[in-house]
Amino acid sequence: MQRKITSNRTIILLILGLLSAVGPFSIDMYLPAFQTIAQDFNTSVDRVQFSLTSFFIGIAFGQLIYGPLLDRYGRKKPLLIGLVIYITATVFCVVTRNIEYLIALRFLQALGSCAGMVASRAMIQDYYEPREAARVFSLLMLVIAISPILAPSAGAFLLNHLDWHYIFVSLLAIGTIILILTYFYLPESYAGNHDFSLRPKAILGKFWEVLTNKTFLSYCLIGSIASSGLYAYLAGSSFVMQQYFGLSQTQYGLAFAFVASAMIVATQINRAILKRWTSPQISRIANIWQSLVGLAMVGCMLFDVLTLPVLLGLMFCYLLGQGFIFPNTSAMALSPFRALAGSASALLGCIQMAIGALTSALVSYFHNDTPYPMLIVMGAAAVISLCIHFVAGKPSTERTL
Fold first, then answer.
1. Could you count the other beta carbons within 10 Å of the beta carbon of residue 273?
2. Residue 342 is assigned to a structural domain of this protein
3. pTM of the shown model
4. What is the domain count for the chain?
5. Which of 4, 29, 246, 335 has the greatest count of CB atoms below 10 A from its CB?
6. Cβ-based burial of 61 (10 A; exposed 0-12, middle 13-18, buried ≥19)
């Protein structure tokens, strides 16, 4: 299998990147449409925001299902099933005319999209050692980081020329293309273990085995809590930039793209500095940086100096830190696992998305027509992650599972 990966490295990395990006793209592309959807359904923007929260919950829950399936049946079969679920749910998103149905359908859409996120992480773990895996995660992060640049701008373009439903038509086309590429061009990386029991007690036992691994738990929490600041930004940015600062849909897409470009810069620098520094060292420095930026954002709001250019600059710096934290903490969290890579990847993604769903819900719940809820949650996420890093962010010598 390694020979296959070497000979088709570019196309395989591209497919893994697309599988990782289908979830983020499904999140970012419809963000400029929040106000339009609210008007169409005769509801409020904060109500529409719950369709984003339901998506996060669906990703968190769904990954716990796919993890054991990936370990028992291999990576590809569960992945293809997930993509079919995603495509089916997206079809119904196109035709729905009710906000409650949209919230429910976004949950189902997330259940399908998360198969790609779990499988891509597990497949990287199948192929690469931890330091090389961190570099590959950086490549995937490049693809993931492009989605917030392209998706809101594409969504805003569609809104300017067509109805918001065509955003989901576009996601349907993207999902179909990824399904075709996966079926024909992505080789199986792990044949599966048919001795792996799918009984609830056995599955819970494997998850517990992963969760109690010190390296996994430490870096999972560090990366997940740091990432939750990004989800708070996703939940609040549409209101803050469009309604509070008065940007148009097109301007919002451009501003969102500028902020997201920070992750592209960070991931490419990360690939280079991994040749000299370790993942724990890089992620710790990035944690410190992100915490300082998070506190600066809240401070600027308190002292009433938070103009739009200041906000965009600080957001750029905040996501710059995220671009270093995500690939390194992900690689470290999964480094102790081989046979349980699917379960470990699922648990990592579940915890990350569950915390992300919580922070996005907090931004919606405490919505008060100011940027305060978004900024406070982002600052708190960075500081809490840093505290955990100083207390527990050290690799252990536990055996590989």
1. 13
2. yes
3. 0.73
4. 1
5. 29
6. middle
